Amino acid sequence: MAQAVVAALAGLLFGAGLTVAQMINPAKVLAFLDFGGIAGGSWDPSLALVMVGAVVVTTAGYALTFRRRQPVCVAKFQLPTNRHIDRRLLAGAVLFGAGWGLVGYCPGPAIAGLGLGATKTIVFVAAMLAGMAAYHMFVERRLQQSSVYPSV
Q1: Number of folded domains in the chain?
Q2: How many C-beta atoms surround the C-beta of residue 112 within 10 A?
């Protein structure tokens, strides 16, 4: 129960932060990504402060994590163990960046933006979920069957 409450509070705090920072506004994000007004707009550097804040919070969070023997609400830490840069990681990063640059949304802000009820946001989240389902059906299952991708 405590784990669900903490997760809900963390999610609400994250969504509120995205909203306050205007990350749920695709026009704001696209203006940030338009370095030098190449796409016809004017560059808005204000989201750089959001990125700096995210790096500071993440760094502090990892520092606190490594000082603890175990987490507060679960039995053990679940930290990434894979440190290799491979084709799958690069392809995912390119797809993520291309999607973000084309429509101004990434998954977190899109989900937070659902509360506003904008049709474009709903369509984006539906397309994102369909893409995730397609990946699971056509790629992940094949990788698991070929034992290239061990199941966790």
Answers
A1: 1
A2: 20
pLDDT (0 to 100) of residue 82: 85
151 assigned to some structural domain? no
With 0-12 / 13-18 / 19 or more C-beta atoms within 10 angstroms meaning exposed / middle / buried, residue 19 is: middle
Q: What are phi and psi of 120, to 5 degrees?
A: -60, -40
pLDDT tens for each residue of 2-20: 888 988 999 999 999 989 9
The encoded tokens of residue 67 equal: 């000082």
User: Are the CB atoms for 47 and 53 separated by under 8 Å?
Assistant: no
Are 24 and 18 in contact, with CB atoms under 8 Å apart?
yes
Residue type, 96: F
User: What are the helix (H) ranges across 21-86?
Assistant: 26-33, 47-67
AA letter at 22:
Q
The structure's pTM equals: 0.72
In the structure encoding, which two tokens stand for residue 127, read together?
């397309």
In terms of residue numbers, what domain contains 22?
2-145
Q: Is residue 29 part of a domain?
A: yes
150, part of any domain:
no
What's the N-to-C CA distance of the chain in angstroms? 24
The answer to whether residue 39 is domain-embedded is: yes
